[in-house]
Amino acid sequence: MTKRSRTFLLVVVRAAAALVAVVLVVAGFWSSWGTAQHVMLSKGRDHGRLTVTSCAADVCTGPFVPTGGSAPHAHVTIPDSVAARRGDRLPVVLKPGTDDAVRSGFAGLLYAWLPLAGALLLASLLVAGGLRMPRTAWVVGLLGAAAMASAFIAL
Fold first, then answer.
1. Residue 42 contacts by C-beta under 8 Å, 6 or more apart in sequence?
2. Which residue of 22, 51, 121, 126 has the fewest CB atoms within a 10 Å radius of its CB?
3. What is the pLDDT of residue 8?
4. Distance between CA 123 and CA 137 in Å, rounded?
């Protein structure tokens, strides 16, 4: 193999690693944005407290009491992984036009960005191995790990 073909192969491998790392981070952002938009851009949405009354399979339900001028809801659902246990009162934001709740506040914000944190952890492996950038990989990986740890601590 000539030096020219070796250099070309190295460039192709690094470009592929960079492309996959970027796709991972973009996919993590896109997956997180579906929930995070309701927490971050909550102006004009129904804010209130959800009292967990029952949990089944992967969702918990309970009545919603608004803190603003919206109407109360008797039956609102939230993912089981966000709700702690029966009887807990959680600050939530309702998705527009539905009875689906999203945990609000700092804990809800961190939880909403968990897919991006996982994508950062995976991308750090590609940055370290494929792009040969260990310091950058450490920073990316530690950012993802810190976001994950703080989300689980806050919940």
1. 93, 104
2. 22
3. 94
4. 8
- Across 12-128, where does the E strand assignment appear? 47-51, 54-56, 59-66, 73-79, 89-94, 101-103
Given a cut of 80, whether residue 126 has pLDDT beyond it is: yes
**Is the per-residue pLDDT at 27 higher than 70?**
yes
Neighbours of 61 (CB within 10 A): 20
**What is the pTM (predicted TM-score) of this model?**
0.87
Asked if the model's pLDDT at residue 83 lies above 70, the reply is no
Nearest to 77 by CA among 54, 96, 104: 54
- Taking the mean position of all CA atoms in its chain, how far away is CA 61? 21
Q: Does residue 60 sit in helix, strand or coil?
A: strand
Token digits of residue 41: 């851009």
Q: What are phi and psi of 65, to 5 degrees?
A: -115, 115
